[in-house]
Amino acid sequence: MRLDFRDILNYGLFLPPQNGKAGKFLQEDRLLKDYPFSDSVGHLELKYKQRIYRNLPANLSKLRKINSKSNLRHFLSLVRYGELEKITKLLEKGVDPNFQNRDDGETPLTIAVQLPKPKAIIMTLVAGGAHLDFRSADSYTPLHKSAISGNYEAIKVLLDLGQSPNTRDSNGLTPLYHCMLNDTSAMCAERLLFDHSVIGITDSAGLEEIHQACRFGRVQHLEQLIAYGADINSQTTYNGNTPLHFCAYNGQESCARLLLFRGANRTLKNRAGHSAYQEAVLANHVATANLIRDFQDEDIGMDAFCVTIHNRLHKLAYFNMSRNFEKFECLPSRAVVELITEMGLAVGVPQKIQACVKFFKFADCNLIS
Question: Interior CA angle at 9 toward 12 and 90, to 5°?
């Protein structure tokens, strides 16, 4: 028998009501053994994810009317404009926030996570029955959308609400992988890694997160991946390129320097028989080629570490240091601005912060935005 499912990725396992408890959908990435079941589970149902009404409205015709196509379009518009009070009222009337927009395939929650200040809207939608893993038409969960747009606040809220960082899209890619593909803050990647995002996921071409970070020259992201255990000598499935090969081919000198200081193997060859140095020469990236050729093995491990400049609430900047250092304290914001400006960085609105920075010679300096 053939079954035709619409929007197949939004089907989930549903635990029916039992022992006076309401039914619920099980999370995709959570094992059954991780649920605190007090007794054996009789059966699970495969159902399309919908809102679970704790108190089902007596008038079902009104419920169908409130979930009409026109009302759902209006609801999406309210989410786009952050109309919190109106969203709350419609949810109280019974709107089911688990649906896709017919025009662009977005859901209320995938729209909300792209707002500048999304926390209140996300919390309201989830409290109103929105599922954390309900996907848009392009197979992305709200966490994927948060990672793609670089919305750190949305990532934090979703993870705090229990969303797994290892949810996959239709291509098997995680939110962390999408952080590497998009020009977003390294803080987003750091938060996903902190919440135990897996490393080593590959795309259809066999590239892992670390290859993508080197391909696009994302030094801060690369720093985070290495700190959480990414393999700096990992070779791609099809052509055998290492992260250093990607740096060489794309002329990403800063990433190449970081890899070398962390002990990347310069002698590994890809399937074409080329070392990273040879790839840099062939691509006419002279500076990167010279860096790889002239690097001394005794300098491995001498690139120092990440140091964070922060105020009480937010990280403002961090630096990758070189081997020699001295310690000093920056009290007024002007001193920090002068320090950062001297290192060639763009500076936003100065803030009064305190920082203890170790530095002598900077290998790379980048603001976390």
Answer: 75
